[in-house]
Amino acid sequence: MFAKRDAERRGFATRLTPQASAFIAQARSVFLATASAAGQPYTQHRGGPPGFIRVIDETTLAFVDFTGNRQYVTTGNLAENPRAFLFVMDYASQQRVKFWGRAKTVRGDDALITSLLPQGYDARAEQVILFEIAAWDANCPQHIPQLFHADDVARLIARHTAQVEALNAEIARAKEADRIIPAL
User: How far apart are CA 32 and CA 63, in angstroms?
Assistant: First the structure.
């Protein structure tokens, strides 16, 4: 998905490309890393339907932070230290992209929450996380297990089942027609 580049020679990208934006738009799984003012690291998974992370512009990402375990470690860390890291995974295509930057939480902005809330997703929004990209890079796919989302697999199975049923119906019609028309 991403062209291989010589990161040591050219440095990391600082603005999103159309390919990176498309990758983000289909993401279902990210890991958000933060650290306290004292440097204690913390990583938390964030997930949702494709499109739950939105590209605001070529240097800003945003997503609704849904209610969860009520530990608020990420929120507390961001209040002390805005440095953050996003690790976006797509197991099906064996792609991952890492983002370094600064993040902040936005609470009480109902219009922003509504604009970012994935349609039809049954979760309660608590706040928004805005992520300002300082740099990003794609990792190589080596050692990423190829995994498929259950919804995608169910759609493929349903489509395959419908095709098999249609073929079986066609075979039955052909056999019936063969019985009706006597052999010459």
Answer: 11
